[in-house]
Amino acid sequence: MIKIVPSKLELACACPAATLRNLDFPFESSPASERGADLHERTALVIQSGLEELDGICEGLEEADKQAVKTAVEVALMLKPKGKHIRWIEEKLFVKVLGANGKMDLAYFDYESGSLMVCDWKFGKGEVPDPSDNKQLQAYVLVLKDALKEKGLEVLQAYLVICQPCGTPRQSYRDALFPAQVFPTWEKEITDGVKAAQAKDPVATPGPHCKRSFCECGKHGACPEFKAYTEGKTVERKKETQDRAAFAVNGLSPVVVESSTIQFPLVVLSEEAIAKAQDLLQQAQGLVLDQESADAMGRVLQAITTFEGQVALNVKAVKKPILDLGKMIDEKAAQALLPLGEGKATAKQRILDWKAEEKAKADAIQAEFDRKKREAEEAERKAREEGLEAARRAQAATNEKERAKALEDAKQAALRRLEAEQAAQAPAPIAQAPIKVAGVKTQMEPEFEVLDFAKMPDMFKVTDEGMLKKAIKAGKVTEKDAWIKIKWVEKAASTGRR
Questions:
Q1: Is the residue at 196 inside a domain?
Q2: CB count, 10 Å around CB of 486?
Q3: Which of 219, 251, 274 is at the close of a domain?
Q4: In this structure, is residue 316 part of a structural domain?
Q5: What b/e readout covers 101-125, taking b as 16+ CB neighbours within 10 angstroms?
Q6: Cα 225–226–232 angle (5° rounding)?
Q7: Res 397 pLDDT > 60
Q8: Phi and psi of 169, rounded to 5°?
Q9: What is the Cβ-side half-sphere exposure of residue 456, based on CA atoms within 13 angstroms?
Q10: How many structural domains are present in the chain?
Q11: Residues 6 or more apart from 348 whose CB is under 8 A from it?
């Protein structure tokens, strides 16, 4: 099984094939690696012994390296918890998921906050790397978290820190804070990364991590994927250079500013202008000792002010065509979309008109049904009364002829009542479901009329129509308020206008 050491864990997780391919290129010591190891040891000794021992421990070092050790120690002191804590320095840790030992540079556990800080020292050049996704530091956090748990201590959050002396102590480190809830995710990512690296035919995924993690395979030209990746980057850089030249205008040279989503030319000073600025800066650093030197410095200040004005005017002149172009694009786009917007609004209105017609038809059918039902119910009532009246006449009849006539009237009234009851029980028309049209969203909107402005609450007298509509929709204003009349109508959610 391929063995992965903690210092190469980030590379293994980023490129599964790297560990296997690097077996052909064992680590070889270099002046840079020897320097790094030496500075690590001296930094650890100074932290353990105190800054007062710096000179003795760093004896024989160049001044720059001695300052780097001092800065790393100062960073360690800045990160040290003020209360009760545990400290680890150059501690060997066994990383179970890797089956290998690693040496952790520095770590602190703060009893009060439950915070665990793990720091990695680097003594290279350039900006301090971002520790957010550093798998080596994540692995050390997981190991220390389990060790502290055995002592009955719980890690609530973890700081990942990379310290690379490059200025003041505060400028020389970057940290990233994570809650304990992410620990299972780290463990899964590391486990999955190790499994992928130990697979039979691991996949190569070249990228910035190849150089950042010192992949020996790519360094020795034995990785075709990395070679293709670097050739692609070379083409990109060449195109970037050509783009700069193409955008150069008015004696000013652009530099391409990039982010994850956009890139654009930013006008900066030309080399000649920079040289002039540097010359003026050098003159401005002269001493003022007498009248002559004071006059000379005054003329320098005047020259700087003139130069600043020239640059500002030049930049303004360069930006004007771009601003004008943007304005023209906006105007042309609005002009081009105007007919389409009007057509969209017309189409929506036609749909609304058709829906209104369909609703009117359904309402008319319902109204006719309601009318006929009312007539049938009235006829049924009238027939019932006539039947009762005929029955009374039959009982009061003095001869057989009157009695027969009354009974016949009662019979006819009963028939009319039966017919009226049947008519009243006719099935109602099927209720029409709300009409929906694909692609068109509609909603009920209030239309209102103010009936009595004097009774209108003052808060609505000073608001616009939109605010009053919002109040109506929210139910804060209803027709119970006698000063307003409200009608709800169906409207398209968008009119198509800008």
A1: yes
A2: 14
A3: 219
A4: no
A5: ebebbbbbbbeeeebbbbbbbbbee
A6: 95
A7: yes
A8: -55, -40
A9: 15
A10: 2
A11: 440, 492, 494, 495, 496
For residue 264, what is the DSSP state? E
- H or E element, residue 231: helix 224-247
Domain carrying residue 475: 442-492
Count Cβ neighbours within 10 Å for each residue of 181-215 and write b for 16 or more, e otherwise. Answer: eebeebbeebeebbebbbeeebebbbeebbeebbb
What digits encode the pLDDT tens for the residues 12-54?
A: 888 888 788 877 777 777 888 899 999 999 999 999 999 999 9
pLDDT for residue 259 is more than 80? no
User: In this structure, what token pair is assigned to residue 128?
Assistant: 């301090």
The last residue of one of the domains, among 219, 252, 287, is: 219
Provide the 3-class DSSP secondary structure of residue 132: coil
pLDDT tens profile 194-231:
888 888 888 888 888 877 777 877 777 888 888 887 87
What is the identity of the amino acid at 343?
Answer: G
What is the tens place of the pLDDT at every residue in 418-429? Answer: 887 787 777 777
Write the CATH number for 142.
3.90.320
Give the count of beta carbons closer than 10 Å to the beta carbon of residue 273.
17
Q: Report if residue 349 sits inside a domain.
A: no
Question: How much is the average pLDDT of 378-399?
Answer: 82
Q: Which pair of tokens denotes residue 161? A: 């820190």
Q: Is residue 263 part of a domain?
A: no
